[in-house]
Amino acid sequence: MSRWMQIDIRLLPVYGPGGLRKVFPKIAAFLKERGYQRSLEQEPSLYHLVEVLERVRKDPNVPSPEKGDLEAAGFDRLVAVRDEARLHLLARRLNELDRSLYVLEDLFQDLERDLN
């Protein structure tokens, strides 16, 4: 590592005007209704949003039937692709990371479509 410089690779959200709430209104409503408004205000990237959804899934204050929406929408696939992306990010395999992030975006579009 350089003495006066560093490499910084970060994933930043780019939702455009209206942010996450406009692009994924059902997911935003799902989080808001379950008390995760603060997470929405932070405008996480989809990569980081998987972690928020994992917290919802494990939250004992969220009734099991409400968690079923995540299960029905193939949540395990979201986690698997996020984990794959994490490995690519840590290994600095940026082309593979980009492909994983495209898949993650597609899965979030599917989740948005499938949520009630």
SSE inventory with pairings:
Blueprint: H1 19-23, H2 25-33, H3 37-41, H4 46-58, H5 64-72, H6 75-90, H7 94-114
Helix pairs in contact: 4-6, 6-7
The share of residues in extended strands comes to under 5%
Structural class: mainly alpha
Report helical residue fraction. Answer: 55-70%
Shape descriptor reads globular
> Can you give the mean pLDDT?
91
- The number of distinct helices, counting runs of at least 4 residues, comes to 7
**The biggest beta sheet, please?**
none
Describe the structure.
By secondary structure, the protein is an all-alpha fold. It has one domain (18-114). The protein has helices at residues 19-23, 25-33, 37-41, 46-58, 64-72, 75-90, 94-114. The radius of gyration is 15 Å and the shape is globular. The termini are far apart. 21% of the residues are buried.
Keywords:
0% strand; 116 residues; mainly alpha
In short:
67% of the residues lie in helices and 0% in strands.
